[in-house]
Amino acid sequence: MIGLPLGGPGPLLILLLALVIDAVFGDWLDRVLPDPARLANRFCNAADARLNRIERGPTDRLLRGALVILTLVLIAGLTGLLVEWIGGHGRGWLVELLVVLCGVRGRAAWTRIRAVRRALESGGAVAGQVAIQTLTRRHVYGLDEHGVARAAVEAAARAFARKLVAPVFAYALLGVPGLLIWTAMDGADAALGSPGVRHSRFGLTAATLDDALNALPARLAALLLALGAPFVGSAKIGGAFRTMAQDARKHPSLNMGWPIAAMAGALGLSLGGPHRDGGVVITEAWIGDGRARATPADIGRALALYAVAALLLVGLVALLMTGLASL
């Protein structure tokens, strides 16, 4: 467990403060604070353009991709150690708090998904396609209104796991170095982890490390979504657990199937499924056995479940802090 900064609040109190501040001011902070994941994404895109040459052999491309990720992890880890050193002196904990706020982006992600709902309601499928394109890897212009709504619900499940639970888990377990390494891998996976010939070797290290780091947080996110279901209208906790047990492993991702299955089962939806990428039909399994014709109202229900699960996460951090303080 991470240590206690001298002369300042403990790390779990810093984390609790960050979660509360993010919930209230996260939209504004997203515009003014640098996002480590975006910085890592740009770093990896630049490295991809320079080092991932098609004429290179597969082993060479694998080693080059691994070197890029190793460099990124070292930068993130050393930066985190520096921040923790600063945080252990006087008012340096405020710097640590700012860095945690850079890594926790739960409110900003929630707002982007809400924008998809509003776009669908005001402009139909075309406006929804524009709003969803940065939140999904699917070919958005092949999605109808129901496809956009399903993609937004899936994006809510992914964002809760990757933008909120995973950074909280990484910081609680490994401090600022863990937080920055996770956010760096989040950006690296977005840049290099997509399936396809170009990144099958160069992006293999990024995808593998991302899967390893997100294994526990993704399942914790699924559990919190399931436990939040009884507090959201017609959402069902039993459906969430049943769909996780039946369908989580059907998803192409080793980890994202868990929160997506929890969301689908809780809301009575079918997510995933076949979709078009240009003129090609990509065959994916359905997650859940509910309605596939999702609507903007279903996005609203997903956002409500996201918010309730986030409150449960805050409560979990507060409980952990209280428990450790009593020891």
Would you give an account of this structure?
Mean pLDDT is 92; it is low at 1-6. It is built from eleven helices and four strands, in the order H-H-H-H-H-H-H-H-H-H-E-E-E-E-H. Helix 1 (11-32) runs antiparallel to helix 11. The protein has a two-stranded antiparallel sheet. The protein has helices at residues 11-32, 36-51, 58-87, 93-103, 106-132, 145-192, 199-202, 204-228, 237-247, 257-267, 296-325; strands at residues 271-272, 275-277, 280-282, 286-287. It has one domain (11-325). GO terms for molecular function: ABC-type vitamin B12 transporter activity; threonine-phosphate decarboxylase activity. InterPro entries: Cobalamin_biosynth_CobD/CbiB.
Q: What count of structural domains?
A: 1
* Principal-axes shape call: globular
Helix content: over 70%
Q: Count the helices. How many? A: 11
**Rg over alpha carbons:** 20 Å
GO molecular function, one term: threonine-phosphate decarboxylase activity
InterPro entries: Cobalamin_biosynth_CobD/CbiB (IPR004485)
Main location: membrane
Membrane topology: Multi-pass membrane protein
How do the helices and strands line up, and which of them pair or pack?
Elements: H1 11-32, H2 36-51, H3 58-87, H4 93-103, H5 106-132, H6 145-192, H7 199-202, H8 204-228, H9 237-247, H10 257-267, E1 271-272, E2 275-277, E3 280-282, E4 286-287, H11 296-325
Antiparallel strand pairs: 1-4, 2-3
Helix pairs in contact: 1-4, 1-5, 1-11, 2-3, 2-6, 3-4, 3-6, 4-6, 5-6, 5-11, 6-8, 6-10, 6-11, 8-9, 8-10, 8-11, 9-10
